[in-house]
Amino acid sequence: MVTNRLQLGHDLRHGDPVPYEFAARRSCGVCGHHGRGKVGSNRTRIVFMGHWSRFLVALMLVLTGFATASAPSVAAEDSTPPSAPTNLQVQRLSFTEVTLGWSPSTDDSGWLLYEVEVRGPGYLQSWAALEPTKTFTALPQGVTFTATVVAVDGARNRSASTSVQFTTPIDTTTPTAPTNLALLTHPWVDKSVTK
Question: Averaged over 10-29, what is the pLDDT?
């Protein structure tokens, strides 16, 4: 790696140097001068001339400073969890369905969702909810479940959980017997079978 540093910026007469450094030593492509002076080797063909070079370097420095000044600062990491949901209750319960409700959580980011699960012996349902209510269906009858709710914010901070237990009832009521059974005739039906 070439470590010599060459200050570029001589004009065509090797006048005042431009205040800009280039980490390479090249010979001048115009006059062949080595060291401090104009750069324009066969490989780079770079020529900085007088006032134009000053203008370009100044413009580059201004743009670089502007880009640095306008770069957004990195936001501090959110490590504060939401408040825990409270007052978790069974709002409606049937043989195979349950509707849960709770008081909403709060978070300093203003955005959160709820992870809601219903767990029983050999059984688990887990869903996300944006509102403080959730209905679960297709539950087995006669089983005691534990419902748990956790609030989660956009940085994946989790609140403390809240839980409630419930038991789905067993449907022991037999259906009524069908009545008014009648034979419906059809041209395709073999009437001899019904005699």
Answer: 42
Task: Give Cβ neighbours of residue 65 (< 8 Å, ≥ 6 apart).
Answer: none
Mark whether 115 and 148 lie in a shared domain: yes
What six digits make up the tokens of 164?
A: 């409630």
Count of structural domains, the chain: 2
- Last residue of a domain, which of 69, 94, 121? 69
Tokens 């219903």 found at: 118
**Sign of the four-CA dihedral 85, 124, 165, 99:** positive
182 domain residue, yes or no:
no
Q: What is the pLDDT of residues 92-101, one digit of tens each?
A: 999 999 999 9
The CATH number that applies at residue 163 is 2.60.40.10
Q: Which domain holds residue 133?
A: 86-167
Cα(first)–Cα(last) distance of the chain, in Å?
A: 108
Q: What is the pLDDT of residues 52-92, one digit of tens each?
A: 555 555 566 555 554 444 444 444 688 999 999 999 999 99
Q: Which long-range contacts (CB under 8 A, 24 or more apart) does 51-59 make?
A: 53/8, 53/9, 53/11, 53/18, 53/20, 54/9, 54/18, 57/9, 57/18, 57/19, 57/20
Better-predicted residue by pLDDT, 174 or 73: 174
**Statement: the pTM of the whole predicted model exceeds 0.70:** no
